[in-house]
Design a protein that fits this description.
Blueprint lengths: L4 E5 L11 H15 L3 E7 L11 E2 L6 E5 L2 E11 L6 E6 L1 H4 L11 H18 L6 E5 L6 H6 L12 E6 L7 E3 L17 H5 L2 E3 H8 L2 E4 L2 H6 L10 H6 L4 E3 L27 H14 L9 E8 L12 H7 L3 E8 L1 H13 L4 E5 L3 H10 L2 E4 L9 H7 L3 E5 L2 H6 L13 E3 L4 H15 L2 H12 L5 H15 L4
Parallel strand pairs: 1-2, 1-7, 2-6, 7-8, 8-11, 11-12, 13-14, 13-16, 14-15, 16-17, 17-18
Antiparallel strand pairs: 3-5, 4-5, 5-6, 9-10
Helix pairs in contact: 1-17, 9-12
Bound molecules: adenosine-5'-diphosphate and alpha-D-glucopyranose.
Amino acid sequence: MDSLKICLVSAEVAPFAKTGGLADVSAALARHLHKKRHDVRLFMPLYRKVKGQVELEPVPELQDVPMRMGERTYWFSISTGKLPRSTQKVWFVRCPELFDREGIYTQDADEALRFALLSRAALETCQWTQWAPDIVHCNDWHTALMPLYLRTVYAWDKLFARTRTVLTIHNIGYQGVTGADRLKDLALENERRFLYQEDLNEGRVNFLKTGLLYAHALTTVSKTYAREIQGDEHGMGLQGLLRQRSDSLFGIVNGIDGEEWNPRKDPLIPAAFHARDLRGKEACKQALCERFGLAFDVRAPLFGIVSRLTVQKGLELLPDILPVLLRREDMRLVVLGSGDERYESYFKWLAGAFPKKVAFQAGFDNALAHQIEAGSDLFLMPSRYEPCGLNQMYSLRYGSVPIVRRTGGLADTVQPWDGANGTGTGFLFDEFKPEALQDAIQRALEVWRHEGAWARLVQNGMAQDFSWERQVDEYIALYTRLVPPR
Ligand code: ADP
Ligand code: GLC
């Protein structure tokens, strides 16, 4: 098969800038496409926090490139830097005016413009270097205007004549809605006819929706989520459009980075372990308890949570059941997360009420995320919706049994434990209700008390293969179908 030229653009790339799974997936996809000898250009913004994390090499012919956006001219520069554990490079778009800010995302008025600039800078870099991409692969709302830009602003350029576009929906909950008064800034004032007229009439532009209209192919990150977003419960207003495009919508479940998340050789955890020798896991559990001043007892099950603290993650189900459970059961809970204030204060309160049993750390801490996966016996993910979810897969790999809601990628990657046959890898519940979660936890605790059954359950999980080696082929097959024959 011929090598493909793939222009992959993302707002987050691990380890440089990450708030969630998008970062892991963009990095892993680039790395694995590169490994299969495709020519990948992975673009992301040069956020303030990237500097110091990577050695940047300015691309000489791409310094202070002027780019017209509406009535303004912006200057951007490109530097490359090495993606860890790969010879693949990342192409950083430097535009201090827009990206040299504290966080990755902002509440600033020009938030939409920031990512429109990223999208266009990636395309203009292709032009300046005369590099004709076979595939432009954009991700989430941030870069979802790329297919439209190709059809309008860049339609004149033969360089893109054979380019096909793929838009991956990692999360339909974020659509990038901005006021229609910004169209000029986005260089789309003259392209109004291409936009969703109902939105325009109401004074809005929706980035993701625009991408759904113009990308040649749409993907999302699990088969179940691909089905769910076509329905009223999970479509978040885009279900009608997605149903119209269902022939071009594909579910490709995420893989996990088996190098970074490998309990055999994870430098971030206090002791290594593997399926046939779990002594290291016990040491990890003890270390985790000690770190947070929790009473350590091998027999007391330790539950872990690592999560963005947002409404998506289903944390509302916890307050009704946790205090009761914690009073009744000799269990431990370690929570790491950042996000909405109300969840942070809840977990703070809970840790204060059960100081020997519950620990909460607010903030983003990659090493601690690894330590929680390694040190916990069970992992809670009661998500309201979950496009794919990576943590349940990390958990399985680290012998931590996931308790998850049967939705999206959670339904596709966790198999229900079946005691009679000794099959399955975790515990699932359906209804978004505290009682349903409680029932799943109860079922898990019953198995916990039977050492043999528990060992089997853990082994089943650790034997799962969620590698990217396999998943990347699905993307390559899709790209290959899209590219027109020469
Ligand atoms: P989402 O992308 O919706 O947040 P995923 O499960 O796909 O959910 O990915 C979350 C990723 O972010 C995982 O790699 C997880 O370990 C990481 N993560 C989430 N919150 C934190 C945090 N507070 N500290 C460190 N890592 C986190
Ligand atoms: C999103 C989803 C998550 C998914 C991740 C990577 O943030 O919430 O379920 O795993 O993207 O695709």
